[in-house]
Amino acid sequence: MPILRQISQLGQPILRQVARKIDDPLDPSVQALIDDMMVTVADASGVGIAAPQVFESLSLFIVASRPNPRYPQATAMEPVAIIDPEILWLSDEMEKGWEGCLSIPGLRGVVPRHRRVGFRYLNREGEQKEEEYTDFLARVFQHEFDHIQGVVFIDRIESTLDLVTEREYLRRL
Ligand code: ZN
Predict the structure, then answer these.
(1) What's the pLDDT tens digit per position in 21-56?
(2) Choosing a second label site near 101 at 20 to 30 A (CA), which of 51, 70, 112, 118?
(3) Catalytic site residues?
């Protein structure tokens, strides 16, 4: 049975470490971690979660975009586990958009991201895949990819004027 994991909060050193690669995606402990992250991200109304956010410094994240109370306009998709991702290319075109983070509760910020990203990864069956994401999914991907490098979204904002509380953000929708 998957269990809800505690979410690491900004200030905890694991969020600032570069996560290590996963040797064997089929290892039962990795499969159990993926299941736990799937239920944890859904329970928290997240659109993605990275392993360091559940206290595992591993190169793994879930992209689980769907409309929910925290992100009413999110793209709907089947949640996917992304293991040992490598970015293959990024569009020159950038776009600014709102982000939040389960590890930084109560805050939203405007973050510039590449509008498109191409990447290679292993799925939870251990198969190598290539994919490209655009717009909101590209934003979620880059946010989660940052987490496995020890980077969080507030590192990427251009000005503290681009930060607002979550309550204020939701009031403006
Ligand atoms: Zn985050």
Answers:
(1) 998 999 999 999 999 999 999 999 999 999 999 999
(2) 118
(3) 144
